[in-house]
Each structure stands twice: as structure tokens, then as C-alpha cells.
């Protein structure tokens, strides 16, 4: 297959991440590592979605710093601003405008079925309207750039299905403009919590549940050592969720020989979980240590503001052109 030559022949990718909490290995293996891998072959646009982050309780003085910190994390993971566009969502208010336009063609019923809304609205006393329409903003993020592919973890698939419906409805009401969106889901699409492996790893469940990409080795060691292994079915019936999660992490570190060896021990009934945990810790640190080192270097260089405003500049050109067409199609002022 011939490799595309210019950004025009390349398919466009869009994905986003919220600047809430700490970047964890679920985010990394489920999404960010794929974002990095896709940079060579696609026209990639990646956004730190701060408009999304304000739908749940937040502190204004922390939000901007979090966005910048997350940008540094993403660059340290391998997002290359020379090859990809990286920017903070609220630098491009057209995201919010398109969200509003899409809100007119999205049904209340569709939004009510979103499982993430059902879960999140139980965690807070104040359920904002923003939390409810959050998936519309997500559709607007992707479609503002007419992106065709969206690399995400499994928890975002329902939102992407809604984005597809919104695009189709727009096209049938106003004319063909948006492409079909396809998710890209990799191997680590659902990393589970270490402390409760029946739940997905998440920023909001508390420290014990996740491993931060930038977390120090001692703390990671402690968390892996105390990871739950014994709930769920016993080895005689199959692998428990906690052990399967450790195996998944081991596989994602790319140490396939060690993975095979540990699997063989599990099957033979000779596997010691303390040994598996030690190996998971060591192989995971081999992935994380270089990222952490790179993070320190990037922070010292102090270029992040410049990189983000150059990214916003590039994104703005596309956003403005597309919103102009959309306004014309819908019959709004141009
Ligand atoms: P967010 O910020 O919760 O997560 C960022 C990415 O990490 C993935 N992820 C996981 N993958 C595997 N295992 C896990 N335990 C795990 N936890 C999180 C998520 O699937 C996601 O890909 N709504 C989105 C952000 C967003 C977006 C978009 C994404 C806004 N606009 C447009 C794609 C396209 C969110 O809250 O992701």
C-alpha cells in the first residue's frame, strides 16, 4: 500500500482527553499510546478538552494549570507537535458553537441513554445541563474537523455511536457534509482498577485505583503489590479479574516472552502472584521511566505555551472554515 504524501490525502484523526485528575496507565494504554502510533500515517488533531472538564465540579485556578500540565504529559508520551496538532479546546470557541447547533438535532431520549451520564450524575449533587449534553460537545469536537477516525478506549464507544447518529442526521437535514466516524480501539481499551478490578481504572475513584504515568516508582510498586488478585472466580474456574488485569498490563508492556512464561505458570498452577506482580512492576517501569524523564526535560524547556498556541492556530484555520460552511448550510448568519 502506498503511503499518503500530504495532509490532504491523509485521513484525519481527532481525539481528546479531559484535564481532570492524573494521566493514568488506562489513558496511556487505552488511548495515548495509539495517538502516538497514528501520527505517521494520519493527519492527527489532539485536544485537551477543558470545556468538557467544567461540566463536573472544578476549581478555576487549577484548571488552566492542569491543561498545561496535561499537555506536557502528552508530549512526554510521544505526541510530536511537528507531526500532530495539539491544542486546548477552549482556544477554539467554535467547538461550543457547533455543540449548540448539534443540540438542535439531538434527541433528549438519545442523551438519556448515555451510561456515562447515568454513572456520573450519581457521583454529584449538582447535575449540570452541561454534563447531560457532554456527548454533543464530543460530537462537535470530532466533526468540527470532519475527522474520520477517533482513537479511544472502550468507555467512549457509546458516545461515538451518538456522534455518528448526529452526523447522519445533520447530513440528511442539511446536505452531505460530515464523514462517517469510525473508532480506533486498541488492545488496552479497558484497563481495570487495581483495587477493584471489576471497575475500569479511572481518575475519579481515588488514588488506590489507578497508576499515574508520572507517579514515582515506589508508589507504583506499593500499588501493584497490593493489587487485588483474589476476587472473582478461582483459578480452577479460570482467571480472576484482578489477575487478568495484571496479565493485560504485562502484555501491553511488550514483554511477550515473560508474558508467555507467566501464562504457562498460571496454567500449570505454579504461578506465585507476588512474582507476577514484581514482573509487572519492573516491565511497567521500563515503559514509564523514559516518559517520566522526558517529562522533566520538557518542563525545563518551558516551551509549552508556545506549542499550544501554535497548535490552536493550526486548528483554528480548519474550524473557522468548516463552521462558516455549516452556518451557511443551516441558514444562520454568515
Ligand atoms: P477521558 O479524559 O476520560 O479519557 C481519555 C482517553 O482515555 C481512555 N481511557 C481508558 N482506556 C482504557 N482503560 C481505561 N481504564 C481508560 N480510562 C480512560 C478513554 O477512553 C479516552 O479515550 N469524553 C472523553 C474526551 C473527549 C473525546 C472527544 C474523545 C472529548 N471530546 C472527542 C474522543 C473524541 C473523555 O472524557 O475521555
Which sequence of SSEs, written as H and E, runs from N to C?
Answer: EHEHHEHHHHEHEHHHHH
The proportion of residues forming helix, as a percent range, comes to: 40-55%
Oligomer: single chain
Largest sheet: 3 strands, parallel
The CATH fourth-level homologous superfamily of the largest domain: HUPs
What's the CATH class label of the largest domain? Alpha Beta
- Global morphology: globular
Mean pLDDT: 94
Question: What is the strand arrangement across the widest sheet?
Answer: 1-2-3
Small molecules in complex: tryptophanyl-5'AMP
Q: What does this 3D model show about the protein?
A:
This protein has 334 residues and is mainly alpha-helical. The protein has 2 domains: 12-180 and 303-330, Rossmann fold, CATH 3.40.50; 203-294, Tyrosyl-Transfer RNA Synthetase (Orthogonal Bundle). Helix content is 55%, strand content 7%. The protein is built from 13 helices and 5 strands. Helix 4 (94-103) packs across helix 7. The chain is globular and about 70 Å long. The two termini are 42 Å apart. Residues 1-5 have low confidence and may be disordered. The structure holds tryptophanyl-5'AMP. Residues 14-18, 26-27, 30-31, 49, 52, 138, 141-142, 150, 152-153, 155-156, 188-191, 200-202 line the site of tryptophanyl-5'AMP (TYM).
Feature tags:
13 helices; Rossmann fold; mainly alpha; two-stranded parallel ribbon; disordered N terminus; binds tryptophanyl-5'AMP; 334 residues; Tyrosyl-Transfer RNA Synthetase
How is this fold's topology laid out?
Elements: E1 12-17, H1 25-38, E2 43-48, H2 50-53, H3 60-77, E3 85-88, H4 94-103, H5 108-112, H6 115-122, H7 129-144, E4 149-151, H8 157-174, E5 182-184, H9 217-225, H10 241-252, H11 256-268, H12 273-301, H13 304-330
Parallel strand pairs: 1-2, 2-3, 4-5
Helix pairs in contact: 3-12, 4-7, 7-8, 9-12, 10-12
The structure holds tryptophanyl-5'AMP.
